[in-house]
Amino acid sequence: MFPFRAPPVIVGHRGAPREAPENTPEGFAVAASVGAQWVELDVRRSGDGVAVVHHDPWTADGVAVVDRDGAALRQAGLHGLDEVLDRLPAGVGVDVDLKNLPGEPDYDEAGAVAGIAAEALRPRVGQRPLLVSSFNPATLVAVAELLPDVPTGLLHAPASSVAAAQEVALELGARVLCSHVGAAGMSSAGIGGAHAAGLAVLVWPVDDVQRARALAAAGADALCTNDPRLLVRALRARRERL
Known about the structure:
Layout: E1 9-13, H1 25-33, E2 38-45, E3 51-53, H2 70-75, E4 79-80, H3 81-87, E5 93-98, H4 112-121, E6 130-134, H5 137-146, E7 152-156, H6 162-172, E8 176-180, H7 188-196, E9 200-204, H8 209-218, E10 222-225, H9 228-241
Parallel strand pairs: 1-2, 1-10, 2-5, 5-6, 6-7, 7-8, 8-9, 9-10
Antiparallel strand pairs: 2-3, 3-4
């Protein structure tokens, strides 16, 4: 099921954070080198409208990402989305998680981060598999308008069941349900229901081998993990036994 081929696809969550710094070109390269077909990364906006790859609203010294310009953030060790995409090995898919939550310093109701990320992604459409995900439904709507050829994915926390999140995803026109591994309904029936509705299912974070094998058997399309080396080995061994 698009955009994932030959499921379950292994997605390096922020790269390979157990082996290299998260959300860095080095970490993404490690994930790809151990067999991850995709990587997931987080995008925020700088004060001067640069898409930067960083998870938290603040840098390590406690300054809000949005309160610095792109040059200052590069000096602080953050990487721009353009740089990361340029350095990513060919063929590796990218799940771009857009951060835009109420209460955080860079929140923007109009979804400014969607436009900024779209500028970086637009020239790369068709060059590698792409997915844009977010917890914020309005942000996904903005992305869909700006990048109609790029599938979107609704992220949801364990507080929402798979079935409830599925309904929201369908209303948004999303093509992927990005479900927390602890969400109620994370089962073969829940995944099968999403598939029947036309949604692919990405599960995060999956760092346990037994859980990964169970989710693979249940039909999950993608497993997002902090330890891609571990899961690639585990699922390779599973395929060899089938």
